[in-house]
Amino acid sequence: MPMPKSKAQTSQPAQPRFPSVTEIRQHVAKLDERIEQVQELMQEGLPYIDALKVKVELGLRETIREIFGDKSSEFQTHGGLTIDASSHPAIARTITVLQELILSLEEEEATLLGKPRPARRPSPAIKTGEPEIKTPRGAAPQSSAPSGTKPASPPRPSPEAAAAAAAVVAQRQGSAAAEAQRQPAPSTASPRQGAANLADALVRIRTICTRFHGVVRQLRERSEGRLPFEVEDEFDVRDLLRALLHVEFDDVVPEEWSLSRTGSPTQVDVIVHPVGVVIVSTKTRRGMGASEITDFWTAAAKRYTGRADCKSLFGFIYDPEGRIGTPRRLETDLMSIGTRGKGEVHILPK
Question: Rounded to 10 degrees, what is the CA torsion of 33, 35, 39, 40?
């Protein structure tokens, strides 16, 4: 009995994930924008770099989710992408990840158009830290080639790589020039008075707030059976924070005002002179969620933004019980409210 003929197994081509070239190019443009944001973290002396890094990270994750979807291998691999802003090579690694995602999109575009596989983009130009070999004036450049042989000409970079390197160099030079203009003239003041530099003052304030919870825990352990110092509400936070600020700054001035006309508790902020940092602080409690914190920050931004004595608005939200479920996301949302780029918020501890 003849065997039934089996149907030939034909391999079906993979279905494209994106229906049109136009959509793919829109996605590539979004990732290119994210690369530009990551490259900003390479600038020297960049203010609020920690806050900017968090904002860029959130944007990267949302863009990858939006383009490839929650269930995609791209999102499963890079959905928790973080940026190490401690060095240029580390930042460049993040850019390389984004370039790989762009390459995957461009490959799908080439498939739709029936074109060859696209070439990889040049890696971002970074500082390698290798010592520069200097040749004495008037001396011929040294060569490791054997005598009597003509040294090989160095390879010429591709136009794309040269353009990318030139763009990064120009960006760094512009940033360095802008930072030099912002820096105050050298001063003969004491180290504490030398905190008149705004960037230096903000570093000190961030350190105090980051270590605030450790100080609170230490104050609970007192000797000789004395009662512990407990931070129970926003008034305790303000008192302890102001005391810690006096360790670093000479001129810490309190400012008292009311958040609203409906009998809300009086808000006492501090202004660090002469650098002009206004610090607003509070403590989370039952019934105080993201909405209430947003109202608190909005009122503070409205009061201080534009004032001559406020060069930077600094928010400290003490959250020892972890009542804020997504503190980094809330920080990013708050920093976009009303401070014209001259504010930062820290919800601590995390």
Answer: 30
Rounded to whole angstroms, the Cα distance separating 302 from 314 reads 13
d(CA 42, CA 171): 9
Question: pLDDT tens digits, residue range 172-217?
Answer: 555 555 554 555 444 444 444 434 488 899 999 999 999 999 999 9
pLDDT for res 15: 65
Cα(293)–Cα(244) distance, integer angstroms: 23
Residue 267 pairs with which residues in a beta bridge? 257
Given phi > 0 = left and psi -120 to 50 = alpha, else beta, which region is 224? left
End-to-end CA distance of the chain: 75
User: Measuring CA to CA, which residue among 112, 149, 146 is closest to residue 15?
Assistant: 112
The first and second tokens of residue 246, run together, are 């006096």
Residue 257: which H helix or E strand, with range?
A: strand 251-258
Residue among 259, 217, 223 nearest 240 (CA): 217
- 274 upstream amide cis, omega within 30 of 0: yes
pLDDT band at 113 (very low <50, low <70, confident <90, very high): confident
- CA–CA gap between residue 188 and residue 216 (Å, rounded): 35
**CA–CA separation, 305 and 342 (whole Å):** 8
Residue 281: both structure tokens together: 């602080």
